[in-house]
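Contributing new records

If you add data, match the layout below exactly. Sequence lines come first and carry their own label; structure lines follow with theirs. Keep one chain per record. Anything else will be rejected by the validation script.
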Amino acid sequence: MISNLIVESKKDVPTSLAVLRSGYLAFVVIIVTSCARPAAPIGGPMDNVGPQVVSSTPDTFAIIDDFRGPIEVVFDERISETATSGTLQDAVQISPMEGDIVVIHRSRSLEIEMEGGFSEDMVYRVTVLPIVKDLFQNAMPYPFEFLFSTGAEMMENVVAGTVADGTTLRPSFGTTVIASVESHDKVLLGEGMPRHIAVTDSSGVYAFRYLPVGNYSITAFVDENRNDDSDPTEPIADTYLTVEPNDTVFADMRVLRPDSTPPVLNAVGIVDSLTLLVEFDDYLSPGQFSDGRVRATLASDSSDFVEIRQMLDGFEYGIRREMLRGTTSVIDSEKMTDSASIIAKETAFDNRIPSQTVYLLLTQPIRVGASYEVTISGLVNINGIGPGGGSATVVRNESNIPGDTLTVLEEGLVYER
């Protein structure tokens, strides 16, 4: 009985091993399958190109008398639900903007609606900004823009220009520019009047196309709080122009943060024994020293007045410094300074970078250990607010002033390095 049992169990060994092997293989397959992750095919070309628009509804230059929306913009690939900056709500501009814009994300498209719908007899310009990206984080290579009409005639014209930062003169990127209909009858300028909107590119360039004929107020502002409106503390600029059929109008602007106070003297420093640096709390209007309205005095504690030979703004002093650079011989200082002023005058004020400093060139060196009071008045800031100025005291404590010094000689000035 026992022997029979043993024999039978030996016969079953191969079968049991087969079962174990098949179970083990199934277990391995399950583990391998569970560890798999979806991935892009190996060896294919890398996607480095952002999504591009292939169609839109309405179509470009379409005329639809009774258009209710929505607008649809279709891309050549799937797009991300997030933008490269901000959100997809910021990716679309409709001009004129008559209500809040709602952007709905689809797999390969954006669906756009405007609160209150689209009015009759209007020309709408739709701009998709290059912050839309694909699933591989590639952004649109450039903006996409198209126009359609709800019944109005499309009259070809262009209003364009650049917007720059008024303190650095660098292009102002992402600045909102609004064109509003201007009228002598202020009753017509109500809340319901359409506002045409554009946004500057990386070069500070903006453009309006197919504007209705009329007079416009053009306002550029840095929308720091993203509320689509200018606020009292945001940098702003404005201008006025007239648009006619087949017209091309250019208008460049510089945005400045609003200011209602004149410039105030902050501090006085010593550049060298014959040059003082006066610093203000505001950026100053360039080229305002030639008409005599700005006055400066320098008096010591012994009531001796030191004559101020010339006042230079930061731009003029920069030219003078470059003319002195590398010089080791005697220089006629008056000719050198006059040359700097001439070069500065030949440069249009619009191309001068504003500064917060004024340089005072003296006829004689300030004495070591003496206290001097600097008084300056009549200054105007870059917002046109003035006159401003102030007083401050400066003391030359050491005989060796850091940096270059100038020593008075009968024939001129020696530039000592």
